[in-house]
Design goal:
The chain is α/β, with parallel strands linked by helices. It contains 6 helices and 5 strands. It has a 5-stranded mixed sheet with strand order 1-2-3-4-5. Strand 2 and strand 3 form a beta hairpin.
Length: 187
Amino acid sequence: VLRKTVERIEAANIKYSRYFIERVRQAADIEGVASVFQRICERDDEMAVDHLMEIEYGLVFKHLGFHPWFEPTGAEGPDLMVERGGLSAFLEVKRYRPKEGEHIPEEFGSHGELQEYGNLRISSSRIANDLQDKLHQIRPRNGVKHGILAVWSDREWIEDVDFECGVRLMCQTLPEEELQGVLFCVF
């Protein structure tokens, strides 16, 4: 499956394909990764990148000393489970894809000022809603009491401040019981 996955990435129109091939090779020994490799081989290029982001976060946590494994409760559950020091957490990955026509202006305004882009209110609200929609994936179950929401963005307009405001908005608007078990969100 590893060979087929590498061939699939080589044949795809994926930015940074060499990087992803190396990451796929590094993830080959992670438990459950074969199911992610299979999905990469079966999906279109954009969906394949979504699954490559799952591998990316699996490797991030592995390099932080966690023991990761993919699809710990099956294809409909969280993307990963990570464990270290007797503490386990489900991890769900969300990717924001690039949006056609959306870019940060490279030219200055008529008086040499930076031009506005994005809309913090709209983007933070969308992020809050998207994260809220992912909460069911990481809810406590099967003896795992914690969850992590991991976001990857290929979108120029989503900045750290958008993400931080979105997380704060979600935490302020949801009842505490809906946030039960959420350890943190990472961007």
